[in-house]
Every structure is written in structure tokens, then in C-alpha cells.
Amino acid sequence: MIWSPFFSLALLCFGTVARAAVITVNWNVTWVWASPDGFGRPVIGIDNQWPCPKLEATVGDTLIVNLHNGLGNQTTGLHWHGINQLQTPEMDGPSGVVQCPTPPGSTVQYKFLLDEPGTFWYHSHEKGQYPDGLRGPLIVQDPNDPYKGKYDEEIVLTVSDWYHQQSIPLVQSMLNPSNTRFAPPLPDTILVNDKKDVKFNFVKGKTYRVRLINMSAFASAFLWIDSHPLTMIMSDATYIQTETAYHLHASSAQRYDFLISAIDRDSGNYPILLALDINRDFRNATLAPNFPHNQTAWLVMDENAPFTRLTNNIDVWRPADDTHFKPLDNLAMIPSYDHLVQFDFRFCRDANGYPRACFNGKPFIGQKVPSLYTAATVGENNTNPVVYGQINPVVVKKGDIVQLVINNQDAGTHPFHLHGHRFQILDRARPYAGDWPGRDVNYISTPNRRDTVTVWSWSHAVLRFRATNPGVWLFHCHVEWHVEMGLTATFIEGPEELRGHQFPADHLENCRIGGVPTRGNAVGNTVNPLDTTGMLTISPTVYTGATWIPPAGNTTTPARDGSISSPARRRAASRLQGRDAVFGDSELMI
């Protein structure tokens, strides 16, 4: 890693230079049999265990994760959601964008600086894989936490939708010409900390910092805690000025940190109601509420006391408006911009009649060469979006101020996430406000900053960020099913600094095993990168997800259905149906 004055300044600001450590973990990604809601199914875990482990470090630390793919029949990889990846864009994780998929039996190393504190998470960014379970919390502690001393303990609270079918057949059913309503798969249940019946100790006189993470593939989540206000202190990884809330709404990938206290008058056990929202827009009074899955967790003061307080008395959810949160540092709105980017989103159909999701009329279509490899190897041509193919590329100069406008031309709300950055939310218009009017209006003077913003139905949002982080960064809806439909764009940021970028040997080796070229334009043309011959402009009609399909000449023949498919695996699944268990190595052999 190349050291820079920016790193020195960042670490000095947090006062962690002397405490910086290198944290190394060795993980094996494996199939696990689990039944978190009583329904048994194969899930993707780590080291034959699921849920996946929590990672915890301190700002200024370097994290090294040696990730071995022990799945046998799928490729894999990890994205570190919300981490800036300063000077390490190749470690961001999206397969086909900044790295090649990690084949079965191979290992990839992720090594990066944790330059900012906050509540983050990791998840697979490999072709719809993370709804099968490969995700977990990543907590970066702050020795100089401005709220230090105001709480005694921490609670990590994850919420997620859960599906009884695996991701590949779900997406195959969705990407079908008969899906005329562009309907995504609907979840079968809700999980809290990837299980049911979650309880947290709640002791008089103590204040708790709750780190809420929505790890859903689709649904937003509402939270309410009986008889206790929430003191908000952070959204995504931005400290905010304290504000009292009673209801929270977290879209997929969003995080909130809040404080909650057990005071003298408290007694008994207090329910935490979490409700999945699959309503198109809960703020629209004309739409029927649609909260098909609820779960109650508990703040427990007395295990012998009844768990009988009512949790079904919320007729209308009135969550705090995160765009009104004020950053603790009072950082003012970036006053102007150099580059205007406008994305108009709507569902669409491709030339074969398949349902897709489009930015400005085009879905994202993955190409043969990972985009960061193209940026590193085509020389001066890397400033020309043509060389990247139909990944909805946007090229911005290092140092530019980017104004990003999202026009949501759909009847549903959508959470949009930007890799490598936290943007300022200058404006999020009310539902049915229509498209951005094309001119700047009275924006928020000290806007909140986060990496995932929810844009309401038939409405728009205006974001700004500084392009000071050279790399290739995705901007996409964080509904994983919509990613598979193509709702993604790509920022090629500071391309001049990406020329000649070097890649780790193990990353390159995984490309070689998978038969993926690592030089040239989107199809590997090194002679004339501006030649678009062979670039994909229509999405494939056959969807195989993360299924490992060996390239020509590779004699490996694993199962190809993305499931536990050998006779031994089926026998193991039958034996373990309905109870938590993990497969032994012999049962995982193909």
C-alpha cells in the first residue's frame, strides 16, 4: 500500500496511529444446513457455521481476510459495504467489476485500511448470492467517539428478509418474459440476527448503543421499541447531532446507531417490534399497508417476568426523516458542482422480451473483462466510456464535484447505494413529486451524509460528492433482485491515476483459472480498445448466477445447480430437515 498525506491526516484526526493493528482472519466459505425459522435449507456460511461471524476492529487498523471458496459448485467474493477502500479499489469486491470471481477451491485475499469508524457490513457481491446467507456485520470502533461515555454497552441488531428457496431459481423465475409486472421474489419470513426469538439484557441504570443493520435482499424494515425513545447518533457511518425518534425505517443496506436507556421506572420486558415493509410506498395513504412479516425481539429485565406486552398497536408508521438529520461536524453543503449526472430509472424490456431495470433506458450488462482491469490497461483510452461496454459507465475526473440526480420513475421506493463514497443528500422530494426540475432549488444547508439513500415513488433525490477516490465504483439499487435485473451504473473515477494499476497475484490467478482476460477493453481487445466488436448489448437469456462453469480445458465437474445436489448431500439434507446443523467435509464433497 502506498502511504499518502491523506492517510496520515485521517489517522491523526482519529488519534489512532499508535494503536493501529493488522487484523487477519482466515475464512472458508462453505455450504451449511440451517433452519432459522424452522424450515431447513442450504445456506452459505463461513467455516461450516451460520450465521456468519461479526468482524470488529478499530479505525486505523488494516483488515486482512483470506477467503477460501469451499462451496464446490459456486464462485464467490465479498464486498465491504460502506468502506471507502482508499487506494485499494481492487479490494471493493464486486465480481466482474474490480475482481474476478473466486472459483471453487481457490483463495482470494482482501487487504484494506479501515479509515473511518462506524457500523458497516460485508456481503457477497457475486451474482445474487448474498440472499443465500453470505453476509455479516463489520464494526469499526472509534477511540475518539464523540458519544463515548454516554453508553455502557453495545448491541448489534440485524434485520433481514429470508427466502426458503435459493437465489438462483428465484432469479430464474423473475427473469422470465412471463413476468409482466417485473415482480421480484417475495420473502417467506423475517429474521433478526439471522434467527428468531432474540433477547437482549436490559439493566437499570445502563444505556445501550444499538447498531441496526438492514441486511435484506428486498424489504425495508420498521423498528419500534415499546415505551422507549431512540436517541439517534449515526446514520450509515456519519455521526449526527442527537435527535429523538420513536419509529425508524431502514431500507436494504442502511444502518442506524441509536442510544436507549433503562431508567428507574422500567420493569418487566420490553418488546422490539420489527416489521418488513413490501409496500410500494408506505407514505401513500391510498395504498393498503403491506407488512406480511413481523418479529418481536425483547429487552429483557427479568427472565421470569411475562413476555406479553402488546406489539400490534401501531396503526401508522411515522419514522424519523433521515434527510433532516444534521451531521455532527456541521459540514456545509458543497456549494457547486463540476459534473452533473442524471439517472432516470424505470423498468424495461430487452430485445428478447425479458424484464430488466434500466438507467437512462439501458440495463447494466456485465462484460468479459472486469472494469477496473480495463481502466488499468487501456492507457489514455480509459477516459472514453466506450471501452467499458454497457455497464452504464460515467467517467469523472479526480477532484470533480459530482451532482448525482436520481429520477425514480417507478411506483415503488428504491434504496440506491454508492460504493467508495458517502454523498450529501441535498434533496429528497416527497412521493409523487416527479422528476428533478432541472434546476437547483433551496437545498439543505448542512445535509446528512450516507452511502445508501431511499428514493420515494415517482420522485427524485439530489446528491453531491467529491470525486477524490480514484477507482471503479458501482452505483446501484440495493434490492438485490433489481441488481440482477440491471439496475446498476459504474463510476470510473480519476482514470488517469488508474493507468498501470497493479493487481495482487492471487487476484490474477483466479482470473486465469476462470478463463477471464485481465487486459484490454470490455472484451479483452488490447490492439484497438475503441473497437466495440463482441461487447454484450443484450443480457443473456440463460441465467446461471454464481454457478461455477469451468472454462474450456478445465476438467473440473462440480454440481451446477447452485444447490446441494449430490446423493450424499441430499441424504444429509433429508436427515437434517427441520433442525440446525452443519455438513461435515465428507458430506460436502462433490
TrEMBL record:
InterPro entries: Cu-oxidase-like_N (IPR011707), Cu-oxidase_2nd (IPR001117), Cu-oxidase_C (IPR011706), Cu-oxidase_fam (IPR045087), Cu_oxidase_CS (IPR033138), Cu_oxidase_Cu_BS (IPR002355), Cupredoxin (IPR008972), CuRO_2_Fet3-like (IPR044130)
Keywords assigned: Copper, Metal-binding, Oxidoreductase, Signal
Leader sequence segment: 1-20
Any Gene Ontology biological process: reductive iron assimilation
Stretches assigned to the Plastocyanin-like domain: 29-144, 153-301, 367-496
Gene3D superfamilies referenced in this protein's UniProt entry, alphabetically: Cupredoxins - blue copper proteins (2.60.40.420)
Family: Belongs to the multicopper oxidase family.
Stated name of the protein: Multicopper oxidase
Lineage: Eukaryota, Fungi, Dikarya, Ascomycota, Pezizomycotina
